[in-house]
């Protein structure tokens, strides 16, 4: 990748060649939570978790281009995504920026996967629009009392703690405001916390609903300034700049591998479709590389929304192409990876910013259209 440090990428690939083989010998093709946690421990033991973390917290302080190149290499091993990706990529950013010394003490356990975090931001009726959230943390003499509901909480069933965004200053009924929000660390085993898994099309239950019923929190649970949680929350969302780029680069690599492997064996009627998909994925990768360069130079604008929008559409087309390529075998369940990719790709236009939200951002910030 243009701009990546070749020495660091070469070091990572040399480690991964041996680490992935050792992991496969023990876990095979498993992608479950226990395997993902074991893979995270293996990566962390060699210093390949928290790639963009400052060195003072055990990270490598890599620039974005090198981070994406290394994480792309990790993804190419076929090993599972690390179990604590939310803690590593999201929660840690908030703790490093806003956490107390006691809260920052969680960082080594987050990096190793010993401590698993989930994130409680989205609510029914307040997904992309967090200014409308209604979960309430009422101040009392000995801390706060938390009441409300979160939804689409990734890995809530495995989470030890949840980073929750709640309203500490009420607003008028039906109103919306980014003011009066605060962030909290909430242990998932506290009385009043209820987790209900949401079964997905794939049969997995990665997402959950989380209910908070009169959950009592000490003052030390507060992360960042009281009533200024929106600014603190933005620290946790900054990782999505890298996440969108990484998704784009992985999809380009997947398309290259699939189309390249099929090659002359592609049915004549599918070759135009394969070529079109290949071109689109290459354009997607070039957009991601340009965006990485812009971020590296300190320019943060709507380019990331372009990449996210383009990725979601190319990813869905790729999943459909892959499923159709396997034909009856995929339909009969003999190619479970292709079937799972097709089902999971339905979320690509929803996760990390819906297609509608991305188009609104581009319409307003790039095209100058009225709201």
Shape: globular
CATH architecture of the largest domain: Up-down Bundle
Reported by name, the CATH topology of the largest domain is: Butyryl-CoA Dehydrogenase, subunit A, domain 3
Most strands sheet: 4 strands, mixed
Low-confidence stretches: none
* Number of helical elements: 13
Number of domains: 3
- Secondary-structure-derived class: alpha+beta
What series of H and E elements makes up the topology? HHHHHHEEEEEEEEHHHHHHH
The CATH superfamily label of the largest domain reads Butyryl-CoA Dehydrogenase, subunit A, domain 3
Instruction: Name the beta content range.
Output: 5-15%
Overall mean pLDDT score? 87
- Strand tally is 8
Order of strands across the main sheet: 1-4-5-8
- Helix content bin: 40-55%
The end-to-end distance, rounded to whole angstroms, is: 37 Å
CATH class of the largest domain: Mainly Alpha
Family: Belongs to the acyl-CoA dehydrogenase family.
GO molecular function, one term: oxidoreductase activity, acting on the CH-CH group of donors
Protein name: Acyl-CoA dehydrogenase, N-terminal domain protein
Keywords: FAD, Flavoprotein, Oxidoreductase
